[in-house]
């Protein structure tokens, strides 16, 4: 977790094997939550950003 506010949180995830860094931003508004995850480089990552966004979404739903 890098930062947070009333309706926003940002964080960074660095992968274990190759050290690839992804940035995540979560915006929460009434009736809507946006989750955006992007890699810092332009290399193909095999869907890792989608898997991270899914993990964040599941954690928000279950309150973990």
Explain briefly what this protein structure is.
The chain has 64 residues and is α+β, with helices and mostly antiparallel strands. Helix content is 23%, strand content 41%.
Descriptive report:
This protein has 64 residues and is of the alpha+beta class. Helix content is 23%, strand content 41%. The protein has one helix at residues 48-62; strands spanning 3-4, 8-14, 21-29, 32-39. It has a four-stranded antiparallel sheet with strand order 1-2-3-4, with helices on one face. The mean pLDDT is 85.
What order do the helices and strands come in, and which of them pair?
Layout: E1 3-4, E2 8-14, E3 21-29, E4 32-39, H1 48-62
Antiparallel strand pairs: 1-2, 2-3, 3-4
Largest sheet: 4 strands, antiparallel
Order of helices and strands: EEEEH
Catalogue the unreliable spans: none
Provide a count of the helices: 1
Distance between the termini: 14 Å
Strand order of the largest sheet: 1-2-3-4
Q: How much β-strand is present in the residues? A: 35-45%
The amount of helix comes to 10-25%
On the 0 to 100 scale, the average pLDDT is 85
Instruction: Please provide the count of β strands.
Output: 4
The best one-word shape is globular
Question: What is the structural class?
Answer: alpha+beta
- Give me the Rg, rounded: 12 Å
Keywords:
41% strand, alpha+beta, 64 residues, 4 strands, globular
């Amino acid at each position: 977790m890098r930062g947070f506010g009333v309706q926003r949180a940002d964080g960074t995830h660095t992968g274990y094997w190759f050290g690839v860094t992804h940035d995540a931003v979560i915006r929460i508004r009434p009736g809507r939550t946006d989750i955006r995850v992007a890699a810092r480089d332009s290399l193909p990552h095999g869907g890792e950003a989608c898997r991270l966004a899914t993990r964040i979404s599941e954690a928000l739903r279950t309150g973990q």
